[in-house]
Amino acid sequence: MNRRVRRGHREFLIVSAISAFSAVIINGVAAEPVRIGSKKFTESYVLGEIAKRSLSGAGIPAEHRQGMGGTIILWEALRSGQIDAYPEYTGTIVQEILKRHDELTFEQIANELGKAGIGMTEPLGFNNSYALVMQRERASALGIRAISDLKKHPELKFGLTHEFLGRQDGWRPLADHYRLNPQSVIGIDHALGYSVLRSGQIDVKDAYSTDAKIEEYDLTVLEDDQKFFPRYEAVFLFRHALPEPAIEALRKLEGTVDEAKMTRLNAEAERTKNYAQAANLYFDPNARSTSPFGESFPRELARWTVRHLELAGFSLLLSVLVGIPLGIWASRGGAVGHVILGFAGIVQTIPSLALLALLVPLPFFGISVRTAIVALFLYGLLPIVRNTATGLQDIPRTLRESAVALGLSPRARLWQIYLPMASRPILAGIKTSAVINIGTATLAALIGAGGLGEPILSGLNLNDHATILQGAIPAAMLALLVQSLFDLLDRVLIPKGLRL
Amino acid sequence: MPAIDLSVERGKTTVLIGPSGCGKSTLLRLIIGLLEPDSGEIQFGGTQLRADKIDIVRQRVGYVIQEGGLFPHLTARGNILLMARHLGRDQNEMRARLSELCSLTRFPESLLDRYPLELSGGQRQRVSLMRALMLSPELLLLDEPLGALDPLVRAALQKDLKEIFSRLRQTALLVTHDLAEAAYLGDEIVLMNEGRIIQQGSLVDLQQSPASEFVSEFINAQRVLTFQ
To answer: Is the minimum CB–CB distance between B117 and chain A shorter than 8 Å?
Structure first.
């Protein structure tokens, strides 16, 4: 009787855990603030924060999904309604979104976007063009002043961002336009590019004309003497479906930021590692470092950690609920077993970044927590499926036959004999999945799903090790904690007779 | 395995004996439904054994194997009561039956909460026997139940088994390759070779009127070992 009661209790616990997790996910979606997106670089983060503040100031709840990715990801997210607004540049709109090669007037751009149900504010007041930059001494030593001067120096090493390398208004057409043919062109992260430019490992890099680093590192902006780069007026794109007051709040930002101001805000953001604070500077030029709007670190850390656990926990739960039945099925061998184990194995070999990138364009997924959870769930599957299958197959034949000969029904054999006997390998598989999930969940920040990957990603963008560690250390500690938690769980869930 | 025709007498112990690979264990596995006959049928209490009824038959047949086949994650009590609990038998009835079995098999009740790994080989076989007897089976199948035990424990268990069978008037079919054990426990001995029943009768029948050269050979070989 005792045993029966305890088993019932265990089932109750599992059911409660499932309902708790579902509640978390459903509540997360229930309240719908205006969602502002931003691209993966400082200025976009700062503009995103400013928009959020402007909306909050008008009494409209808003959230900012920081650094979701590049142009296409943000545009698709806006069009499909996963975000409501994000900062963009006119040149990028023409070249990348509308895929036009001719010059369009501001009104023409607005008309074209209108056809997709997207609105555009008037320019915010600054032109952030693409530019090529070099170290000042190096440029003057070689006598390079403008982009056309680069033609004479094919030995110079170019370090360009991946987005610039791939853009319609980026490297290829630029090189054709100016007839450049350098011997070495490598792709490198934007923030990291500045530090290797400074250390002399590369000579030329792409930049935005309002980059704070241009001033900080005293770089020369090469003149676009053959007028290749289109104008990049900063604007906000928003969905027409957005309520009028929200659109008004965005329009209030029109014509309020000139180049000097934007460069200063960018510099402030990079100096303080705090975008919210740079946004404060926009609203109050005399704002002090401590702001009532910036989140305190412990609260921020708590938010990241909770989200991280939600991502890892919910995906693990799915992996367990799907993985154990699949493992049971696979343990019976035959073609189906091979297919199941083969599928789980193949999923595991896809690099996690690639898996995220593959899921994002699919309908239903996109830039969301959902996508991150599904990717993590797929990753967590193999250890659970494989351990369940081998755990069951390793049960000695004599014991299987004893269970059959007793006359237990197949269901009772599975639940009362086979699964308890295989509990150790099954739990070991779940433990492996949990630890993998905690680590891999840091990548969720890449698609705006948050978690401890957020500070890691910001830190990478800012080239700031302290910020990276703010995410990396808690993530590592979390993994250790989960590991020891499972060691404790072993004592509860593995029957005593198997631990002698 | 060729066709085989064997019937066992109710309330008696029939021993299947023969060299390794003669098919005696296979026969037990056919009866309990671990193997299916290529053709022909097995009847139990007058009804034919069929796949859909096999579990009901299994619940009326006890099965004990050499290593005991006890489930390591269940205590001795858990193993013995497994089926009765599965069938939702009455608590008090189960408790009474359990202590009856403990005294019958000379198993101390204080050891009931131990796990199989905490018991000796002989104790494990007693638990296995109790598990097989729990639902008062009409037929008890024992596949070399004492094969893995040392001689002293084995002798003690042989004596206890004989007593238990006669007290319960248990219909039993026991497989062994030890002629002395067969002679001691069996009311009837069935000698098998290469999947066929060669001769059926008492040890005296087998010794005095062997059905073939093989019977004498088998008995003499064993006698050399037994009485050397």
So the answer is: yes
pLDDT confidence of A23, banded at 50, 70, 90? very low
- Which residue, B215, B208, B212, B206, is CA-closest to B186? B206
User: How confident is the model over A54-66, as a mean pLDDT?
Assistant: 89
Is a pLDDT exceeding 60 seen at residue A292? no
Least confident interval from A342-351, A361-370, A435-444: A361-370
pLDDT, tens digit (0-9, with 9 covering 90-100), for B191-218: 998 888 899 988 888 888 888 888 888 8
Q: CB pairs below 8 Å between A and B: how many? A: 72
The three-point CA angle A490-A494-A497 to 5° equals 135
Residue of A nearest to B64 (CA): A402
CB proximity B55 to A under 8 Å: yes
Residues of A at the B interface, defined by Cβ within 8 angstroms? 1, 3-4, 398-399, 401-409, 412, 416-417, 420-421, 423, 495-498, 500
- Kindly report the length of chain A: 500
CB contact under 8 A, B73 and A420: yes
For chain B, give the number of residues: 228
Query: CB under 8 Å to A235, separation ≥6 — which residues?
Result: A87, A88, A89, A90, A93, A120, A121, A122, A123, A124
ipTM, two decimals = 0.89
Per-residue pLDDT of A25-35, as tens digits, reads 444 433 478 99
Measure the CA–CA gap between B224 and B204, rounded to whole angstroms: 17
User: B155 CB contacts (<8 Å, ≥6 apart)?
Assistant: none
Q: How far is CA A47 from CA A89, A238, A290, A463, in A?
A: 12, 14, 20, 20
Which pLDDT value is given to residue A1? 40
Over chain A, what is the mean pLDDT? 85
Residues 6+ apart with CB under 8 A from B186: B13, B14, B15, B174, B203
Give A339 or B22, the one with higher predicted confidence.
A339
CA distance A119 to A113: 6
CA Rg, chain A, in Å? 27
Phi then psi dihedrals of residue B90, to 5 deg: -65, 135
